[in-house]
Amino acid sequence: MLDSLRATAEYFQDVLENTSNEKIKSLEEDIRVVVSEAEDVVEMKISEIITGDSWTFGILQHQDMLPVVEKMDTTKKQVMEILSHDADQILELTGDSLIGASSMSDPMLSDQLKDDIVQGLDDDLEIIDKILIGPTSDLDIVTISGMGGIGKTTLAKKAYDHLPIRYHFDIFVWVIISQEFQYRNVLLEALHCISKKSPKDYDEMNDSELADLVQKSLKGPRYLVVVDDIWSRDVWDSISQIFPNRNNGSRVLLTTRETDVAELANTSSRHEMNFLDLANSWKLLRDKVFGLEHDHPPELEDIGKTIAGKCQGLPLIISVIAGHLSKTVPKTLESWEYVSQTLSEIIASHPDKCLGVLGLSYHHLPNRLKPCFLSMGNFPEDFQVETWRLIQLWIAEGFIRTSSGSRESLEEVAKHYLEDLISRNLIMARKKRYNGEVKACGIHDLLREFCLIEAEMTKFMHVVRIPFSPAQKPNFRRFSIQKYISGNYKLLPRVARSIYSFSFLDLPDDSCIKSLPKNGFFSCFNHLRVLAIFPVLTGTFPLVITKLVHLRYLQVRCYDSIPESISELLNLQTLICDRLSFTSDRHLPMKIWMLKNLRYICIGGAAYLPYPIIDNNFVTGMPNLEEFYGLRYSCCTNEIFSRIPNLKRLILPVQLSELYYFPDRPLDMSILTKLETFKFYWKDHLKDPIKTFVFPESLRRLSLTTCCNFIWEEISSTFIMLRNLEELKLKRCRAEDDVWRLSDKDIFRSLKLLLLSELNLKGWEASSDNFPNLKRLVLKKCKDLQEIPTDFMEICTLESIELHDCTTTAEASVRNIEQEREDMGYNILKVYIHNSHSKL
Fold first, then answer.
1. Are residues 60 and 196 in the same domain?
2. What are phi and psi of 418, to 5 degrees?
3. Is the pLDDT of residue 151 over 60?
4. N or C: which end of the chain has fewer CB atoms below 10 A?
């Protein structure tokens, strides 16, 4: 029966991913329901077997699975009948079609709306003009990329109609691609722009003849072709050949939401559009409501700026809200304040103008990325989610799939998914590392609103923002509780697989979660995979949670230690247990070593990890553990490290009381051959720890905080041996000497980021040879350092220098380096100087 269920589920997956048959799409909800029901039954049987509640050999014990097998088979027959009666819609298993998966209409806004969105584009227009009229004689492909509704088409239209551009080019062609790409239509549009003839005039010609005619028409004069709203790399490949290069300065201007399309077309002449700042947002809103030649009531300016700010710089939203204000809302302070409070509802009431435009980006996604994008609705507005947390949640939810034969880990595949969604301008990178890696990400409020509507409509997820009514008991598998609502816990379905809580849960015994008996609140959620509770979890660790055998991701906060019964969560991958008090030690249970699927541990403060007892009843290692945040210094032994051989990231917050008993104990990490990141936090200054460290060669990132009594020569001699070290951060450290002298032999070969913060450093003697690959230098509150070594001007890879509250002489030395690099024609150096004293 299990084999049958799995085979049918895989069949459904292949059908939905590879067919464009609308009849099949109409069955998608039925397929989702029947598969979810089958999964519920299977997981319940697994729970019963693990807990010992039900287990006998033979088919009779599992008769309750027969109905779901029959329902799956019935639905499969319906799908097969549809496919068999429509030979033209048989599965396209050979790859993605050039035609988008969405059947939605053209994504373009009305001409009137597009023409109105013009404020804040002057700088962008100047950049595009310079590229289009630039001296390059070869055919140049210029791209404009950005999120849907940000004004790409508007900018292209302004350039297309700009007088300097009109005087420069001889032929102007505008073609719209959209998701419903048809090669012949593109050729006919181009010919209509060139010859002004009707498409009917070319009925006798095939596609090849039309393409030849377009090429011949463009070979002589200098032309500008705008290819608007291109979605696919394959589409660009198919049409790029029709644009001849006559070395006469002709240009092709592309607009796209897809960053990878822009990169494929041209990596040098790319222009990425930014959101409008507050000043331009308010100007656009004001001018649309009151007109260019009319003043606005002064009392509306503050609330108007508030409304404009809530639109988060997206011209599409600003234009829609402005239309609402100008047509249906009295121009009074009270009415505008109401609009400010109900902005999301107003946006949702204009689906064609707002959510429909952005929905095209979603419907163009491959199926594997859709749940990852919709999951961003789990988080409240303006929430920044760390990349590591998002990746662990995606893995726990089952959204990440590896292909057969792939050597990539689930984390690596998840990173590719995230990069893909960012390149499509659906997820925004909020924080980045020096090398471009995303540290934290978020989502625009308009896209979040789309997520919530789409997730609700497809039964993917429900965000609890208003009370349920008993009559509308939610039939969902995922819940995000973002507002305190009394009594709604009773209506959550027992088949829920994910619960995110950003507000207190109102439980029968109190308004927050306490120690619960076996039959407590969580005991009924036998299918739960993700339990992420962000607010305070008081009392003791809820033992009932350890009965949720399918749990993969657990995030709680409590006072006491984790119980031994955590070992019952055999599927657990991520364990995050913050604590409310750091006055007492936290001990991890011995049986945590049985969690062989555990990938990530984050413990508030420092936790004691007992050495695993070698016993037939114990799994003596955690082979999949990749990150440990909060391990005690005294537990960093070869015996412990040998049981977590695949650890990649290790963070040690060290208490002074602990070091009192282990002051001279070396920290040998050489056995951790896959360790990439090591962060070390002293709680108080203590004697030199640096010479006691033994690092693995695999180390790439190193951060030391509040170390002291070392000498700078130890920094050089210790860290230059780490040939893969790319990032070094020293914070609040106190050396015995105050000058860092590097010899010719002290070469940090791979170092790309160097951060020095709150050091007692007065002098720094170094040359460009010491840091041959440095990209970013950051100094914070180094109030004794007088200057940056002048030879840093010759570091060809150096891209930026940041100074935060440093001396004026250090600032002057950086400005000199910046000027000398400019005079010598090196690549542009970005200098950022932030000083609190300059604001006085």
1. no
2. -65, -45
3. yes
4. C
Cα angle value 302/304/306 (rounded, 5°): 75
**Stated length of the chain:** 840
Residue 590, pLDDT > 60, answer: yes
This model's pTM is above 0.85 = no
Summarize the confidence of residues 407-435 as an average pLDDT: 88
Q: How many CA atoms lie within 13 A of 112 on its CB side?
A: 4
Per-residue tokens: 253: 């201007």
Which CATH number goes with the domain that contains 286?
1.10.8
Cβ(427)–Cβ(418) under 8 Å? Answer: yes
pLDDT digits (tens, 9 = 90+) for 669-711: 999 999 999 998 875 555 666 777 889 999 999 999 888 778 8
User: For 507, which DSSP code?
Assistant: B
Q: Are residues 392 and 253 in the same domain?
A: no
The Cα 322–Cα 318 span in angstroms is 6
In the chain, % of residues over pLDDT 70: 83
597 and 571 Cβ atoms separated by less than 8 Å: yes
HSE at residue 725, side-chain half, CA atoms within 13 A, is: 24
Which two tokens mark 130?
């310079």
> Per the structure block, which two tokens stand in for 769?
């040879």
pLDDT cut 90: percent of the chain above it: 24
pLDDT at residue 826 in the model? 75
Q: Is residue 203 part of a domain?
A: yes
Type of residue at 210: L
Q: Which of 725, 734, 739, 644 is nearest to 684 (CA)?
A: 734
Residues 284 and 246 in one domain: no
CB neighbours (10 Å) of residue 461?
22
Tell me if 500 sits within 8 A of 481, measured CB to CB: yes
pLDDT of residue 695: 92
CB 672 within 8 A of CB 641: yes
Distance CA 541, CA 563 (A): 7
Q: Are residues 342 and 312 in the same domain?
A: yes
Does residue 756 form part of some domain? Answer: yes
For residue 832, which phi and psi values (nearest 5 degrees)?
-120, 120
Q: How large is the average pLDDT for residues 111-116? A: 38
Tokens of 582: 């750091």
Angle, CA 263 vertex, CA 259 and CA 268 arms, to 5°: 125
Position 512 scores a pLDDT of 39
Q: Write out the two tokens for 235.
A: 């589409």
Axis-axis angle for helices 28-51, 2-18 (nearest 10): 150
Higher pLDDT, 61 or 637: 637
The pLDDT of residue 115: 41
Residue 117 above 50 pLDDT? no
Are residues 830 and 804 part of one domain? yes
DSSP label at 612? P
Sheet holding 171-176, edge to edge: 171-176, 223-228, 251-256, 140-145, 270-272
- Would you say 252 and 131 are in contact if contact means Cβ atoms under 8 Å apart? no
Give φ, ψ of 212 to 5 degrees: -60, -40
Work out the pLDDT band at 730, boundaries 50, 70, 90: very high
Distance CA 255, CA 405 (A): 37
Are residues 139 and 232 located together in one domain of the fold?
yes
Same domain, 296 and 379: no
Angle between helix axes 333-341 and 301-310 (nearest 10 degrees) is 20
Letter for the amino acid at 751? L
**188 falls within a domain:** yes
Query: 255 with 370, same domain?
Result: no
Q: How far apart, in Å, are the Cα atoms of 79 and each of 2, 16, 31?
A: 20, 10, 9
Residues 758, 831: Cα–Cα separation, whole Å:
20
509 pLDDT band, cuts 50/70/90, is: very low
Task: In whole angstroms, give the CA distance from residue 757 to residue 10.
Answer: 54
Domain with 394, as residue range(s), is: 365-443
Does residue 618 lie within any of the structural domains?
A: no
Distance (Å, whole) CA 149 – CA 112:
14
Separation CA 228–CA 109 (nearest Å): 13
725 has pLDDT over 90: yes
